Known about the structure:
single chain; alpha+beta; elongated
Amino acid sequence: MKKFIKITAxxxxxxxxxxxxxxxxxxxxxxxxxxxxxxxxxxxxEVNNIFFGAGxxxxxxxxxxxxxIYLDEHKAYYTFITDGERSILKYKxxxxxxxxxxxxxxxxxxxxxxxxxxxxxxxxxxxxxxxxEYVYGEGAxxxxxxxxxxxxxxxxxxxxxxxxxxxxxxxxxxxxYKEGDMAYGGVYAAMFDGFTMGTEIVYARYRIxxxxxxxxxxxxxxxxxxxxxxxxxxxxxxxxxxxxKAEHVNVEIVANGRxxxxxxxxxKTGEHTVTLTFVFEGGEWRLDTxxx
Length: 292
């Protein structure tokens, strides 16, 4: 009899443990996580634009070769800017500030700083060059443009910090990623490493140029953005769907934007239902699926 009581007690204890395990793995109520999930979806727009959309802003190249030319005998740099119908000479001598002169065949507009072999005059002018910056030297990679210095993100680490505040490690670095690995899979592989497909080279979206003084962030000009307009979401349609558990939640929601119609294998635009996955990692919720 005592043996039977002991066995019954053990079974009862196991049932309690099993019951508590099931309880702990139960998905949270939507209202308890909805605000956090919405905040992640909203924050993902910036990350998606950097990775898959237009990307970070870059400096324009001048028309022509876009190169900054150095004249050793004069210790001078110069290049040309096409501003509408005007041809603007940008130049600096030694450590002087940049100056500008308009190139024209018209004489008599004042004192010309130079007359070229074709009879063109160069008249000093005031010029606002805020959209241009000439860091494109003769050795500059034609497949990459320089990210503007007034952009908030000036390094790969800064981009990664932003991305990891929104998306899971697995989504960004690949499901097989382990802490300390130098090689990535996932989104980071395409964004920062690039890859080859047969004979085709797929350039990394972003890389660092340390070939000149300092470190400069570069963005590929060969990348075709995945979208021009980001999807929008109707948060009133959110509902948790199976399979979901305490730290891995699937949410069904109505979106508006581009999508693939799997029945006809056509890309369409309009309302459609998507499932977004949220994972609780490192003490915080993160998105585990793209939202663009």
